[in-house]
Amino acid sequence: MENFSNSQRAEVLVQALPYIQKYTGRTVVIKYGGNAMINPELKQQVMEDIILLWLVGVKVVLVHGGGPEVSGLMKSLGKKPEFINGLRVTDKETVEIVQMVLAGKINKTLVGLLENKGGRAVGLSGLDDRLIEAKCKDPALGFVGEVTRVNTEIINDLLERKYIPVISTIACGPEGEVFNINGDTAAACVAGALRAERLIILTDTAGILRDPSDSSTIISEITVPEAQELIKDGTISGGMIPKAECCIRAINEGVKKVIIMDGRIHHSILIELLTDEGAGTMFK
Predict the structure, then answer these.
(1) What distance in Å separates the CA atoms of residue 4 and residue 19, rounded to the nearest whole number?
(2) Using one digit for the tens of pLDDT, what is the confidence trace for 23-71?
(3) Which of 207-211, 234-238, 257-261 has the highest mean pLDDT?
């Protein structure tokens, strides 16, 4: 905006006003991962987007993953990452690595970035106040959990006190076990429990594509039945299937609208929420 005149800057703000009014006081859950988390410039812009929304009164909940960093630490420790259907095989040693990376390094780094941008953020994991409860999803996957309950009390308390909750995706089991939770799944469950206005899933693709090799074939809006049909006929395939299923789950659990969008686009969150243009694929 450095090349904009003052009047042009004012016009941009005026055009955003109806959207600001729409979302002020509403809850928006953002699932943060992919290239937007790895690229330093994109990371700064995501934090700026979140702070701007927070300053105009949007209740932002940030749910984050960190798979690449987990895999990187595993390799440095001589442990080979294994996956089944896109889910990390998580033995006891691996779940300790997951807990260390997600609840420790990444979570506190994101809190620090938000604080440095002028926000007020609190880092949480699913273990805090039993925020996310889970059971074993599949013995073959080890300590990978299936979410059974989200305790929203601590999240709502923080939102009411004008904090940004930053949640890492590990969960507690009935016997005190620690479970690794898929980031998209955790975000969908948190958003559903909060009855959020929006769930935004940042990923490394433009959205749902009719032709996976052609980004111009993006589907801008889709209903749950339409998405289920596209999964059946193979249009939605590979790694996009679990993302689409998470979006469907969130809608079924009470989230008003869910967006899968390209986190590699600069300020994509603001484009989606505060402009006519929008971004990605909207489930409704």
Answers:
(1) 21
(2) 899 999 999 987 678 888 889 999 999 999 999 999 999 999 888 889 8
(3) 257-261
Beta bridge partners of 221: 282
- The pTM of the full predicted model, rounded to 2 decimals, is 0.91
Residue 103 gets which letter from DSSP?
A: I
Catalytically active residues are 31, 34, 67, 184, 243
Pair 237, 176: CB distance under 8 Å: no
Whether 245 shows a pLDDT value over 80: the answer reads yes
Decide if 253 contacts 189 (C-beta within 8 A).
Answer: yes
Report in angstroms the alpha-carbon separations of 173 from 56, 76, 107, 131, 133.
37, 28, 21, 11, 6
- Name the DSSP class of 140: G
Question: Per residue in 43-65, is it b (16+ CB within 10 Å) or e — as a string?
Answer: bebbbbbbbbbbeeebbbbbbbb
Structure tokens at 94: 């691996």
Q: Range with the lowest mean pLDDT among 10-14, 97-101, 266-270?
A: 10-14
Q: What is the mean pLDDT of the chain?
A: 90
Domains of the chain: 30-283 (3.40.1160.10)
Q: Which residue bears the tokens 């040693």?
A: 93
- Beta-carbon-side half-sphere exposure of residue 73 (alpha carbons within 13 Å): 16
pLDDT tens across 59-87, in order? 999 999 888 889 899 999 999 999 887 78
CA dist 189 and 195 (Å) reads 10
DSSP states of 49-94: HHHHHHHTT-EEEEEE--HHHHHHHHHHTT----EETTEE-B-HHH
C-alpha–C-alpha distance, residues 239 and 93, integer Å: 26
What local confidence, expressed as pLDDT, does residue 55 receive?
Answer: 95
What span, in angstroms and rounded, lies between the C-alpha atoms of 259 and 208? Answer: 10
